[in-house]
Amino acid sequence: MNFELSKEQQMIKKMVKEFADEVIQPRAIEIDTEAKFPVDIFKQMGELGLLGIPFPEEYGGSGGDTISYALAVEEIGRVCGSTGLSYAAAVSLGASPIYYFGTEEQKQKYLTPLAEGKALGSFGLTEPNAGSDAGGTKTTAVIDGDDYVINGEKCFITNASFAKTVIVTAVTGKNDKGKNIISAIIVPTDTEGVKITSNYDKMGVRGSDTAEIFLENVRVPRENLLGSEEKGFKQFLYTLDGGRISIAALGLGIAQGSLNKALSYAKERTQFGKLISSFQAIQFKLADMSMEIELARNIIHKAAWLKDNEKPFSKEAAYAKLYATETAFRAANQAIQIHGGYGYMREYEVERYLRDAKLLEIGEGTSEIQRLVIARQLGC
Amino acid sequence: MNIYVLLKKTFDTEEKIAVSGGKIEDDGAEFIINPYDEYAVEEAINQRDAHGGEVTVVTIGDEDSEKQLRTALAMGADKAVLINTEDDLEDGDQFTTAKILEAYFEDKEADLILAGNVAIDEASGQVGPRLAEYLGIPYVTTITDLKIDGENATIEKDVEGDVEIIETSLPLLVTCQQGLNEPRYPSLPGIMKAKKKPLEELEIDDLDLEEEDVEPKTKTIEIFLPPEKEAGKVLEGEVSDQVKELVSLLKNEKKVL
What we know:
Strand order of the largest sheet of chain A: 1-4-5-8
Strand content of chain A: 15-25%
CATH class of the largest domain in chain B: Alpha Beta
GO molecular function, one term (chain A): flavin adenine dinucleotide binding
Number of helices of chain A: 11
InterPro entries (chain A): Acyl-CoA_DH_CS, Acyl-CoA_Oxase/DH_mid-dom, Acyl-CoA_Oxase/DH_mid-dom_sf, AcylCo_DH-like_C, AcylCo_DH/oxidase_C, AcylCoA_DH/ox_N, AcylCoA_DH/ox_N_sf, AcylCoA_DH/oxidase_NM_dom_sf
Largest interface: A-B, 19 and 15 residues
Family (chain A): Belongs to the acyl-CoA dehydrogenase family.
Oligomer: heterodimer
Domain Acyl-CoA dehydrogenase/oxidase N-terminal (chain A): 6-118
Strand order of the largest sheet of chain B: 11-10-9-12-8-1-6-7-13
Protein name (chain A): Acyl-CoA dehydrogenase
């Protein structure tokens, strides 16, 4: 048993921390108020190899592990939830499925530019009527000669407006029991019939692109099928398990950012002639925040370690996502409370942390779905 | 070109530093590459990329110094050398460091040695110049630009805000000042490759040195933190009265006039 990060992991954490503090932090308020996706920051992240952390060098990646990736998401999330979310989605949802389930040719063609940070990828699963109930997917993909013809509508898709490829889930048929077979298909966004709009006005993570995708008679070659047709559903469950670790890490980052801000404010702010950090009411809040953050970090690193060691990690990923994102929400909420009236002001940034944290309890499986996943693992 | 960088591990001065019993508490302190040495690493990499050759980063320290060396390797240096004095030396000063480095460089053919202008911990700025003296090569401190053409170097040197332009020749030692370049972040592939790059570990014994040869020439009597900054004083009233008061304060209270 060893709780220490390896030298490489420590170096990665330090590098991303410095990059986040020096490059992203000064822009965080502007990214939120202008709700503008920071393309230039992503370009730099690509050049540093951040978008390819968990992928091998042969596909343009950096050959790092899931723990390193979680550390990077945490450090970015600590300063900017929007950038953190787009980063986590690009790696875990846009690129990972191609790495795990793609053919050699698909990896060369589609994964490499994503891992090198030259393009962004996106994952189109959610539909207006298929959120938590992913089985309710209505989008269809029908074989016509050598092509799939795809029709349907996707919503709340992160990064899609800036993506070069979208992995779209669609119904491709029925199995013997009459249940829909859902498969995943790689769709280049410049294919005819693909329309992507981004008109959402969001509460938080405002600088992360969220888009609707309309697919009208979109033709892609059959070789764009990702993995096997029948196992599409299982594949994206695996993808989502991995994605949960990154969203947990993002929650951890926001929680850590909240604590850092609240602690330094409490050590400067005087009331009743004393620093407010000397009051037990404030101390207890800070103690709880700090404890929950450390617990969240431990379960995230454990889930990541399990994944890196090719052991089952579904349950731990659900624990991590559920606990870390709810920790983020509580920590941000308490950080505002500690800041008092100032905390309600954008300038102090903790109100943004709360708005950003709320998304994490919904996206990539709501807190309720996480509890269901855990309960199923218990055999319920 | 054979390029060497002298690198020192220092406290991160942005972190809180605690002093107890006349010593800096290093438990829990954050250690970093001396920021001026980062300019040296960056410059070494740029010069190598422009002129070819190899960059070797040298540090004197302990086992933990490997982390800073690996960071330099991740930035793009080719080789690293750790001269581990943990078991052999109790204390050291600039003399010690320069003597050890002299012994290290004895059988090396260095074309260019880069160091930081000063280390942010003790800020002596002595090691570079001392080493150059021992090696009998020219040196230029606080450089902000370096152009090498064959055996010749044209250097811009920061002189208290002014610029001095110096022409000299290789082999050469320079110390690097802020403004020379913008040190890069080590990239992810760089970090992953760093663990496969050679890192040689030496002890003073390997350099044919005895403890007595490098005994410090100075003694540290006391270490203390600077006094806490007191609130400033705002003078009020008519400007002419304020001037009078200011002059009197500078004369009588601060005794600087």
